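Page 47, continued from p. 46.
Same chain as before, 417 aa.
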Amino acid sequence: MFCLPEASVGVLSTIFSSILGNYMKAWSFGDKVKNLEEAAISSTIEIYVKIQEDLRPTPSKFHYLFNLRDVSKVVQGLCMVKQQSIPTEDIFMRLWVNECCRVFHDRLINTDDTNWFKDLTVDLINKNFKQSPDKDELFSNLRFGDLLKLGGGNPLYEYMVDKPKLLKGLNGSLEEYNSSGTSKMNLVLFDDALEHILRIGRVLKQPRGHIMLIGVGGSGKQSLLRLISFMREMAYNNIELTKGYGIVQFQEHMKGIMKESGIEGKAIAFVMTDTMIINESFIENLNNLLNTGEIPNLMLPEDKEDISNGLRPVCQEKKIVDTLDNMAALFIDRIRENLHICLCMSPVGETLRVRCRQFPALINCCTLDWFGRWPEEALLYVSTEFLKELPECSEEVKTGLAEMCMRIHTSVEDMSE
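Result:
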C-alpha cells in the first residue's frame, strides 16, 4: 500500500505553469498574454482549493466532487487556442473564465452556489489579472468555440463576438441536417440552447472528451448532441433495445464501435440515456471505458488479431515498432482520442446519485452540463417561433397566445414544486 499525500499548491503551480508556459512559448503568444500565465494558473488552483472547502457534497449535491483532473481540464482548455485567437489580455482573461465555468460552474445547481462562484472569479480577476470587468457582462458573453469554421482543416477555438452570425451558422447547420436524412429536428435555438451547444461542442473537440448531460426528459439533450455530432462530422451512435437485449449484445455493440474508433480512427459520439440502462453492467462497462479506454476481457483472440492487422500500417506510418504490446497501447490511445461517451441522465429520484457513487468515473472523467429549468424568455421565444406561421391571425393574437403558452408552462412547474 502506498500513501500519496495531496500535492501542495506550490507543486501544482510548478506543474501546470510549466505546461501552459511551454505551450504559449511554442505557439509564440504575445508577451502581454504570456505574462498572464501565472495569473491563470494561480487563480485556477485557488478556485480548486476554495470550492473543495466551501461547496462540499451533500445528498442533493452528490456531484460536487472535485479533483486534480478538473485543474488539468482548465489548462487543457487554455491550450486549445492559438496565438491569433488571443490578441489581447482581455480575451485571454475571458478564455480563462470560460474554461473555469465549463469545468466548475456548470456543476453547480442553485443560484447561491453560482453567485458564490461568480463573485470569487471576479475577485481573482481583480487581484491576479489586474482587470475590472463588469460581472453581468462578463458571464453573459462567454462564447468560445470553433463551430463557425468547421469546414476547414484545423478550425480555431476562438472568442465569438458576433452572436447573430453564430445563430445564423447554427440554423444553417440545422437546415442542412434536416435535409440530409429522414429524421428531422424542429429546434428553436434560443440563448440557453446556444450555451449548451457551445459546452457540448467544446467537449467533443477535446481528446478524451466525455460529457454527462443532466436534466429532465424533454429538455433537448439528445437533440443538441445530434446537431453537434453532425456539425463535427462525427458518427452519432447509440444502442437499440430489442426483446432479449442484455449484456452480451451490449458488449458486442461496444466492441464494434471500439474497433471503428481504434482501428479506423473514426470519430464517434456514443450516446447513452438512462432509459437504455436496463442492466447495471452497462454502466460498469462504461465506467471502465471512461477510466482506462478499454473494457476488461472484451476482446477475444480473433479480435486481437483483427486489431493487430488493422493497426500495422498505422504503426509503420507513425514509425512505431509493431509489437503486440505497442499495437495494443496504440489501439487504446486511438479509442480515447476518437470515442466520446455522451451520457444523458435525469436527476429525478436517487438512481443517478447511487450510480455516481458506485461508478466514480461518471463524475471524475466526464464534464457535467446541468440542464435547468428553461427561463421565461426562452419559453416565450420558442412559443413565438412556433406560432409565427399560424394563418389568419393578427400579430396581437399571436403574441397573446405565445404569452399564454409560456404562462401555462411556468405555472404548472411552480404548482408541481
